[in-house]
Structures are given as C-alpha cells and as structure tokens.
Design goal:
With about 230 residues, the chain is an alpha/beta fold. About 30% of the residues lie in helices and about 35% in strands.
Length: about 230
C-alpha cells in the first residue's frame, strides 16, 4: 500500500482528491490537511510515501513546504497555475496536475509514483524479477507503453522530456530527467549530461566528448568523461 497524504487549502479540492484516492486500491489515505503548517508537522513524523500538494496556500506555499523537508516523500503538485511547472520539476516532483484534472490524469500521476516506488524497492533488495520492463507515458492524450529495450536515449526539454526509440519513434511527455534517472535501472541507462540519459547498450562509439548512437551524437558533461567511459565502455 502507498501511504498517501493530501494537502490543499480548499475543502472542495481535498474532497475530490479523497474521492479519487478511494478508487485506487493501492493507495492508503493517511489524512488530509487544509493548513500547510499542520501538514508539515505530519510530514516531519515520516510514514508518508506519496504527497498530493497544492502550491498556492496561505503562510507557507507548497514549494516552500517541500523545500523544508530533509527526506521528502514522492510529491505530486495539484494547482490551478501552470507558471510553477519549471520550479516544480527543479524540485524533482513526480507530476504536476493542473486543476481541474479528471480521474484519468490523476491515475496517470499515481502510476508514475508507483513506478518510482517499485524502482526504489528493487534497488534496495537487488535486481527484482518483478520490476517493470516498460514505462507508461501520457503522449498527446493517450497512455503509451514504451519498453525499456526500445529506448535509445532521452532528452530533457525543460519540464518535458523526449524519448527517442528504435524505429525512429519519438514520444514527448511531461516528466523530469531527475525522476527518470531514479526510475530507470542503472544497469541499462546512464545520465551522461544534464539534458541526456542514454541506453548504454545502444552507444556504439565515443568521439571526443560525444557519444554516438546511430547517427546521433550525444554530449557528455564536462568533467564526467572518465566516469561515463567507465560506466559504458568497461
């Protein structure tokens, strides 16, 4: 069960989230808080796996609340304002839900959180045979299954990312490279630049500070060349 806490200064928003949570068997509702300072007290006690957090709240905003936590849970922002999206992804949130959002969009965000939690659990006990071999991505209104073995590389585009896959398939979705770096198995993928994650088995050559994947050249971050060579070529 995913222990879930809801924080929003509007009762209607809290009640809607509660109704959504109750429809997902894997979610256990720990509580809902209207006051951010009360929520902070609850979070500092631990025991929360997933936090649905409003941004614009009195006294303490959602972003500032998150910044105060030393070991934050997974966070999904729920807000009526799109202008906070870049800051949110800098804070490594799982997803960013714009109000009003339907249950389908809520469920997609929960699925992302479940994938991250599964990846963390698999990493803590070693390679897991039950770990998923695909990602579920929301692309152009559709939920798309992308298998890890098909991914060539992933490019960061501010608050979006672009998956480039075999067969010249490309998928752009709202996500952060930070989340993907944690989610994807390190045995298969490597973060080689602030804007790129590559599938290690798909890299064919190294030319200076550029990795070659087919005809595409991917830059390596300055100062990380030796680390990348060791990770991919040795």
């Amino acid at each position: 069960m995913i222990r879930t806490l809801l924080v929003d200064d509007e009762y209607l928003a809290l009640n809607l989230l509660e109704a959504y949570v109750q429809q997902v068997p894997d979610l256990e509702l720990l509580g809902k808080e209207k006051l951010p300072m009360k929520a902070l007290e609850r979070l500092q006690q631990g025991q929360v796996d997933l936090l649905f957090l409003d941004i614009q709240m009195p006294v303490l905003s959602g972003t500032n609340l998150l910044k105060t936590l030393q070991n934050p849970p997974l966070v999904i922002f729920t807000t009526a304002y799109s202008e906070y999206a870049i800051e949110a992804y800098d804070l490594n949130v799982v997803d960013y839900l714009l109000k009003p959002f339907p249950f389908e969009r809520f469920l997609q965000a929960v699925q992302k959180a479940k994938q991250l939690l599964n990846a963390r659990q698999a990493g803590s006990v070693g390679e897991s045979s039950s770990a998923p071999d695909f990602l579920s991505l929301k692309v152009d209104g559709k939920l798309v299954k992308v298998f890890l073995e098909d991914i060539l590389y992933i490019e960061g585009l501010k608050e979006y990312v672009r998956f480039v896959c075999s067969g010249n398939r490309k998928y752009v979705t709202l996500e952060s490279l930070r989340n993907l770096e944690e989610l994807l198995p390190a045995q298969q993928f490597s973060r080689v630049h602030k804007s790129y994650i590559v599938a290690k088995s798909k890299v064919s050559a190294l030319d200076g500070n550029m990795l070659e994947i087919g005809t595409v050249k991917i830059p390596i971050s300055r100062g990380r060349r030796d680390e990348v060579v060791a990770d991919i070529f040795k």
